[in-house]
Every structure is written in C-alpha cells, then in structure tokens.
C-alpha cells in the first residue's frame, strides 16, 4: 500500500520530465494519488480536501528549479506542507505556572490516558527532574484507580489515593491541596473516559478544568481510531481549551493519518507519541518523520 504510492508517484514523476513548471494538467494526476494515499492513511475526508486544495494553490505556477522535475518538486511541496501542518506550534510540555503545574488528561476510555499519565510522569522525572504527583478522577471504573497506582509506582512518581465513592471534583481539589503542601512541581490528573462522547462526561471535565486551572490540557487519542478521531477531537475541542495532543498506539500498523486530522480540527500542537505499552514508550512527536509515514 505504502510502496504502491511511492511507485505511482515515481511513475508520474517520470512522465513529467522535461516540463519546467507545475501546471494544472500535470498536478492533477499527482494530487489524485496523494489524495488516495491520505484516505488510505485514514485522514478524514474534509481534512484531505482542505489539504489538497492548499497544496495545489502552493504548487501551481511554481517554477521548477535545478535538476528537479515538476513531479519531484510537487512531492517536496506535499511533504513540507504535511510536516508544517502537523508540526506547527509549540511542542514542548509547558510547566510555566506557580507550582504545582497541573496537567489535565482528557480523552475517551481506552485511548491510553492512564498509561500516558504514568509515561509523562516518568519523562518529567527523568528528563526535567521534577517532583510529580498523579491522581485519578475515574470513579466509574474502580480498576482505573488501581491501574494508575500501579503504573505511577513504575514511573517512580507519587500517587494520591482516591476511591469510587468520591466526587471527581473533591478528589482533584484534595490532590491539589496535597501537592501544594508537599511542594510538588507537577500534578497529573487522569480523568474518566467513556466509550463515546457524552454530555455528562464533558460537563464533568469542564468543571475539573475550571477548578484546577491546568497549564496543560492534553487530549489523548488513539492513532488507530482513524476517521473517528475527528469527531472525538471536535467534541473535546468544543468542551475544553486544549493545549496539546498525545497520539497513542503509534507502534500499531496504522499509517497515522489521525495526526493530520486531529491537528487540523483542534488547532492544538501534537506534543507526544505513544510508541509502546511500556512506561518509557513516550516520544516527542516528530512531524517530519510522521509526514513520511503518512505518505508511505
Ligand atoms: P484509558 O482508558 O484512556 O486510561 O486507557 P489505558 O491507559 O488503560 O490504555 C488502554 C490500552 O492501550 C492498554 O492496554 C494500554 O497498555 C494500551 N496502550 C496505551 N498507550 C499505548 C501505546 O502507545 N502503544 C500500545 N501498543 N499500547 C498502548
């Protein structure tokens, strides 16, 4: 599938040799192939349309310099545009707040919030030498609280206890109070997810956001979710001022088109990529490399 695109593009590139300019006629076939590739990579259709229109506008009439053919020049433009779209914005984690810097984790159930919370705790301890506290506001799944306890221990961070009979808002306030009293640099707040978007969930996380005033509100989304990621992203963006995205399960075999969709829909920078189930499986998102993966 991926190699098919590269093959098709190189064939079209060959056909375009000897033309000095990217024109309406030679750009059309190339863009059709790229459109197919983006759809195969599970980028949402409206996002694909938008992207292709932007590339076409940039490419048309462009002089082709040096030894490049129009085809090669177009491939360059597409790659650059894809990387720029996904990589625009600040990508480092922001801790610029009166300590504790609060990081709120949002997303659907199964997206990888709890795992990512612990991975992020480990990263902040190892790379930034921070004192990190985690807490779970997921009172609907008792196993979720235990799960956070286990992975927090693996990360070497401290876990703040909570129980299913408490209200998420009370848990969050108590954790914040504890973090202040004990001089934690960062408080990571894991929240409840649902299998699908629902109003009660959104209201709850909005209340948490208002009470905690987090410096980062990270939207955690499964890269394997493909087309569905767009609707989820839109709902979370409408409910919360998202400051960043974490794409999980990038070690799966999806081409990762969700990155382009989610970035476009939310406008928030993609900060991290989850690349394994393990505690150290979190990487800073590399837009350049990911553009290559999407295009195949
Ligand atoms: P939550 O419901 O959003 O808290 O999701 P969890 O953190 O419980 O993760 C759901 C499942 O996805 C678990 O089995 C995790 O081990 C797995 N998972 C999370 N992130 C990744 C990742 O980056 N790669 C892989 N392969 N699995 C992941």
UniProtKB/TrEMBL annotation:
Highest taxon in the source lineage: Bacteria
Q: Name one GO molecular function term.
A: GTPase activity
GO biological process: any one? SRP-dependent cotranslational protein targeting to membrane
Q: Where along the chain is GTP bound? A: 107-114, 190-194, 248-251
Q: Where in the cell is it found?
A: Cytoplasm
**A cellular-component GO term for this protein:** signal recognition particle
Keyword annotations for this protein, in alphabetical order, are:
Cytoplasm, GTP-binding, Hydrolase, Nucleotide-binding, Ribonucleoprotein, RNA-binding, Signal recognition particle
EC numbers listed for it are 3.6.5.4
SRP54-type proteins GTP-binding domain location is 269-282
Catalytic activity from the UniProt record: GTP + H2O = GDP + phosphate + H(+)
What this chain does, per the entry, is described as: Involved in targeting and insertion of nascent membrane proteins into the cytoplasmic membrane. Binds to the hydrophobic signal sequence of the ribosome-nascent chain (RNC) as it emerges from the ribosomes. The SRP-RNC complex is then targeted to the cytoplasmic membrane where it interacts with the SRP receptor FtsY. Interaction with FtsY leads to the transfer of the RNC complex to the Sec translocase for insertion into the membrane, the hydrolysis of GTP by both Ffh and FtsY, and the dissociation of the SRP-FtsY complex into the individual components.
Q: Record's family?
A: Belongs to the GTP-binding SRP family. SRP54 subfamily.
| Oligomeric and partner information | Part of the signal recognition particle protein translocation system, which is composed of SRP and FtsY. SRP is a ribonucleoprotein composed of Ffh and a 4.5S RNA molecule.
Domain note: Composed of three domains: the N-terminal N domain, which is responsible for interactions with the ribosome, the central G domain, which binds GTP, and the C-terminal M domain, which binds the RNA and the signal sequence of the RNC.
The protein, known as = Signal recognition particle protein
Source species: Tepidicella xavieri
């Amino acid at each position: 599938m991926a190699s098919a695109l590269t093959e098709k593009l190189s064939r079209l590139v060959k056909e375009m040799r000897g033309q000095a300019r990217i024109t309406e006629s030679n750009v059309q076939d190339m863009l059709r192939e790229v459109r197919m590739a983006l759809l195969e990579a599970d980028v949402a259709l409206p996002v694909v349309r938008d992207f292709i229109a932007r590339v076409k506008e940039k490419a048309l009439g462009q002089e082709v310099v040096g030894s490049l053919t129009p085809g090669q020049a177009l491939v360059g433009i597409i790659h650059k545009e894809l990387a720029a779209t996904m990589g625009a914005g600040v990508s480092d984690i922001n801790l610029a707040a009166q300590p504790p810097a609060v990081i709120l984790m949002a997303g659907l159930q199964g997206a990888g919030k709890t795992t990512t919370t612990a991975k992020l705790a480990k990263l902040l301890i190892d790379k930034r030498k921070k004192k990190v506290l985690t807490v779970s506001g997921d009172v609907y799944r008792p196993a979720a609280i235990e799960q956070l306890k286990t992975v927090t221990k693996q990360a070497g961070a401290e876990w703040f206890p909570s129980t299913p009979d408490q209200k998420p808002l009370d848990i969050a306030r108590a954790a914040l109070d504890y973090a202040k009293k004990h001089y934690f640099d960062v408080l990571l707040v894991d929240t409840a997810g649902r299998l699908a978007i629902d109003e009660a969930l959104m209201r709850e996380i909005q209340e948490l956001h208002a009470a905690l005033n987090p410096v980062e509100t990270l939207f955690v989304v499964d890269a394997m979710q493909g087309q569905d990621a767009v609707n989820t992203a839109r709902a979370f963006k409408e409910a919360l001022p998202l400051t960043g995205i974490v794409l999980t399960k990038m070690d799966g075999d999806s081409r990762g088109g969700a990155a382009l969709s989610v970035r476009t829909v939310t406008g928030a920078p993609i900060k991290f990529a989850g690349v394994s189930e393990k505690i150290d499986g979190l990487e800073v998102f590399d837009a350049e490399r990911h553009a290559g993966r999407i295009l195949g």
